[in-house]
Amino acid sequence: MSKTFLLGGDLSVNRLGYGAMRLCGQPGNFGPYADWEGGKTLLRRAVELGVNFIDTAHPYGPGFNEELIADALAPYGNVIITTKGGVEKTAPDKVFPDGKPESLRRFCELSLKRLKLESIPLYQLHRPDPAVPFAESVSTLAKLRAEGKIRHIGLSNVTLEQVEEAQAIVPIASVQNRYNITERGDDELVYHCTQHDIAYLPWGPLAARPFDREAPLAKAESVLATIAERLRATPSQIALAWLLHRSTNIIVIPGTTSIAHLEENMAAADLSLSSGDLAELQNITPDL
Ligand SMILES: NC(=O)c1ccc[n+]([C@@H]2O[C@H](COP(=O)([O-])OP(=O)(O)OC[C@H]3O[C@@H](n4cnc5c(N)ncnc54)[C@H](OP(=O)(O)O)[C@@H]3O)[C@@H](O)[C@H]2O)c1
Hints:
The chain is α/β, with parallel strands linked by helices. It contains 10 helices and 11 strands. Bound molecules: NADP nicotinamide-adenine-dinucleotide phosphate. The site of NADP nicotinamide-adenine-dinucleotide phosphate has 26 residues, from helix 9.
């Protein structure tokens, strides 16, 4: 099983990355992450442990999550920062899609500035805006790509049909949707991405709700715990290892605010699941 994936055909990414969203605080937070220095230490530790792919987005903060990443890691070396535009946050409880061409351009310019980048390696449409034709949003990203402001284009929170529609406009390098051992509604899209060399970035890989970790992985708890005990691992590690085994184009971006959890999650890259383990895990969702 390869530990890396060639994103967009030219960026070598370690398949166990890091999702930085949690480094912007609790729901309703509006402003910088409270433990700014701790956040920087965690990001640097992630890189030390081999992370070279970090996911962020304009509304995380808003903006402060990107600033924190730049403060900790710019000029980045071989670390690939991916961000998203297309969701705006104007107040603690005001978060909404905005995929208008002029808005996407503004989000992209803001991200370039905050991340201290001349070109964003992977820029993702955060979610389709029902008020804007999808093709119009995708075409705007295609223009930003042609201008060199972004290198590759990704899509998030999209359907298979939308991915196909976008592929007819411009090459798509990644898809980021919610997917994990207990939520496998995207199996068909994962397959499509595999067939087209598109990276698939499952968000919520540990089944956490964006700002709530109540009953995570509950549906899978006993199976995960049994396999974890056998492999001297933790249930979270088994859930991450399952994603890495699921398909070689999957890049996992677990989020954490804890260095102990970060270290635990990174160690999942070294776990080898047998075909027996995988069959047991498959049974968690026998309906699929
Ligand atoms: N595209 C989108 O719309 C979208 C939406 C949501 C998220 N995302 C991206 O996906 C990334 C991952 O998603 P996520 O952070 O929501 O969910 P997740 O990775 O499934 O879970 C993160 C949660 O699990 C906890 N956790 C992490 N490692 C753990 C471990 N080893 N043991 C026990 N608990 C652990 C974290 O708490 P601690 O801090 O205590 O470790 C945190 O509450 C985000 O950071 C973000 O970059 C994208």
